[in-house]
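The following record pairs a protein chain with its ligand, PBG.
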Amino acid sequence: MSIRIGTRGSQLALWQAHHVEKKLQDAGYATEIVTIETKGDKILDVSISKIGSKGVFTEEIEAQLENGQIDIAVHSAKDMQSTLPEGFELIAFMEREKPNDVIISHKKNLQMNGTTPFVLGTSSTRRVATLKHLMPAIETTPVRGNLQTRIRKMKEGACDALLLAYAGVHRMGYEDMIVCEMPLNMFIPAVGQGSVAIEVHESLENKKSEAIRSILNHETTEQCIRAERSFLKVVDGGCSIPVFALAQIEDNQLSIEGGIISLDGSDKRVKKFSGEIKASEELGRQLAEEILSSGGERILKEIKNKINEK
Ligand SMILES: NCc1[nH]cc(CCC(=O)O)c1CC(=O)O
């Protein structure tokens, strides 16, 4: 009996699906990859924050999970909304890569010391706001599309450099273009960044689901991302809100650092909580509540108003 693996068709998504396929095959399973086009793949001329609807990259895939055309769906963990539609769940988080953001460029002599102006391409509100906070002199411009498209646009002159997740750059083999790695304490990543998540529908046989989980899940990564996702769920931002959180485990303790930043980068709330690993989700909730009650709620409201104006 073969495991049918659903995925989007971008090169990054396919890399992730093949990564999953290899692990399942090594464990003795036959597999099949099913490529599914989503609304988010079709609409390329509008920024995601303007499409706005939840699940633009997941709806078509979830339809196939529900009717059993595929057994599992492979996603970048960070692309998954904090609350899945009724009946769906994430059963595994694969071992996380370095979660950092990085700047890549095709220009070998790119100067980032402020002496020569340069334009950085990114469509992420989190990245734009964090840049404005840390390096207000840097100009940004929205660049959309999959990784290959963005790199092509950069080379055609849309921007001098791109700000991206290390994980995607690494998986696609563009590491030699990295000019700067953002430090984790200053540039906290998006929830789930760097890990691949496995989604199923409740109609999948329990035995199958458990077998797949035991092959693909990475315990430490799972605890960390469950903490981050529980933070995200309380903040309830949606994908275009600049929130961020990173959990890490050290000496049997889980610590989670995260917060929210205003769109213009002027107002930022960051806090850190640590505790027992088994309290991961509680720690995420605590972080969210503390961020919201210490000014985050007002920042969030302002951001939502601004986004709705557009
Ligand atoms: N938003 C798109 C997206 N979703 C996952 C990744 C990278 C891979 C990952 O974080 O696991 C990317 C590209 C990027 O943000 O640079």
